[in-house]
Write a structure and sequence with these properties.
Distance between the termini: 38 Å
Structural class: mainly alpha
Helix content: 40-55%
Number of strands: 0
Amino acid sequence: MPIPDALLPNAPLIGPDSPLGLDSLDVVEIVVAVQKEYGVHIDAQETGRRVLESFRTLADFIRKQSKAER
């Protein structure tokens, strides 16, 4: 699937409305990559769903976790 020209900050990352068409395996890969790259931990499934709602929620989570660890 091609990447859309414009990915809006509030665009959903997962689910049927996602412009990326990600599946559950893709989500696992994203979580692992984010945890490795940014040193944050996305734990419970519920937290993961909330964090991965959109690009904005993911970025906000990374920022908050990074500040909390300083």
